[in-house]
Design brief:
Number of domains: 1
CATH architecture: Up-down Bundle
Structural class: mainly alpha
Helix content: 55-70%
CATH class: Mainly Alpha
Largest sheet: 2 strands, antiparallel
Order of helices and strands: HHHHHEEH
CATH topology: Four Helix Bundle (Hemerythrin (Met), subunit A)
Radius of gyration: 16 Å
Strand order of the largest sheet: 1-2
CATH superfamily: dinb family like domain
Number of helices: 6
Distance between the termini: 23 Å
């Protein structure tokens, strides 16, 4: 794997591990909590986080809007903490393997997302990292400020 990608994954490993720890603080009832009407519940947010690594990889590979919508429909994990945790780990592993299989030339190849965003495959990886951190922060804030839970999970090293 490319040296730069290894460094990104070292940071993402910590983010994934902290997500697993956050999920393990919750119980099944917590997943139903919807802090803001019309926005995602805790479980829906975790479900999104659980599949985003694979979804973002597929988007970076040039997946069409129809293909990405189908992916989300077919891979939505059940609303159980164990299933959400496993989906997170499986989809992260898919991302790691997919990036590891790319040559340096492929990493620098630009692709266009179905909405028009243009990035190299490496930039899509960085975008995935930012996407993961963004939603992890949302979950942590919901737990602390809405649920009044101090999860005791380190978010950064």
């Amino acid at each position: 794997m490319n040296t730069y990608c290894k460094s990104v994954f070292e940071q993402m490993d910590m983010a994934i591990q902290s997500m697993v720890e956050l999920i393990r603080v919750l119980d099944e009832q917590d997943l139903q909590l919807r802090p803001t009407p019309g926005k995602m519940s805790i479980g829906e947010l975790i479900s999104h986080i659980a599949v985003l690594c694979k979804a973002d990889f597929l988007i970076g590979a040039g997946g069409t809007e129809k293909e990405i919508d189908l992916f989300y429909e077919q891979t939505e994990p059940s609303m159980q903490t164990a299933a959400l945790e496993q989906a997170l780990l499986d989809n992260y592993d898919f991302l790691r393997q997919g990036i590891a299989a790319l040559s340096d030339e492929q990493l620098m190849q630009q692709t266009t997302a179905f909405w028009g965003g243009v990035h190299t495959r490496f930039e899509w990886l960085l975008d995935t990292q930012a996407h993961l951190y963004h939603h992890r922060g949302q979950l942590h804030a919901m737990m602390v400020h809405v649920m009044k839970i101090e999860p005791g999970v380190r978010l950064f090293e």
